Amino acid sequence: MTIRYYVRRKFKDRPARGYWAPCLARPNKLTGVFEPTLMAKLGFKHVDCGVDGPLAWAVAESWNRKWDEARKAHRAGMAPDSTDRIYPSDSLGEGFAKFRATGEWKQMKPRTKEGWLRGWKYIEPTFGDVNPRTVALEHIDLWYHGDPRDDAVQGILEKHGVGEAYIAMKYWRAIWAKLKTINRADDTRYCLGDDPSLGIRRKTPKARNAIWLYDEARIVIDGAGELGFKGLQAALAVAWDTMLSPVDVRTLTLSQLSGDGPEGQFQVDRAKTGKAAIGTLSAETQALLKAYIGGLGATLHPESPIFRTRGAAPGPKGGRPRAPAPYSKDTLSKDFRMVLAADRVWLGLVKVTRPDLAAGKTDVELLKLKSKFPDTRKIMDFRRSGAIEAIAGQVDPAALAGKMANSIDTNKRLQATYLPNQAAVVNLADEARERGRKVMRAAAANTKGPKT
Question: For the whole prediction, is pTM greater than 0.70?
Answer without folding.
Answer: no
